[in-house]
Hints:
By secondary structure, the chain is mainly alpha-helical. The chain has two domains: 5-60, Arc Repressor Mutant, subunit A, CATH 1.10.10; 61-104. The chain is 73% helix and 9% strand. A three-stranded antiparallel sheet has the order 1-3-2. A hairpin with a 4-residue loop joins strand 2 and strand 3. Helix 2 (22-29) packs across helix 3 (33-45). The longest helix is centred in the last third of the chain and has 42 residues, at 62-103. The chain is rod-shaped, with a radius of gyration of 25 Å. It starts with a helix and ends with a helix.
Amino acid sequence: MELTPRLQDVLSIIKNRGEINVKDLALELKVSQKTAKGYVRELSRLGLIESDEIGNIKIRSNEENREEEIYKLVQIHESEINSLKKEINELREELMKIKRKNKV
């Protein structure tokens, strides 16, 4: 995923500060708070930042990103496994039909 230069700037500011609120971010970027909130919303949607209960924004920890990635992978693989199980059961049924047919 490639970020726009502006979102890269926002991310850089957050990294350098460690934690920042939207008002201070807007001041540093020289934009309105509404615009800063838009940047924050987009970076949050991408899973790169998070905000606490009082609105401070910080970089999302790699551990949390990794846990989310693993969870998504598990979901994908569970779906694939269930699909394969269904296919195996269908093949078993087909095999049983063939065995019965050959016994007659």
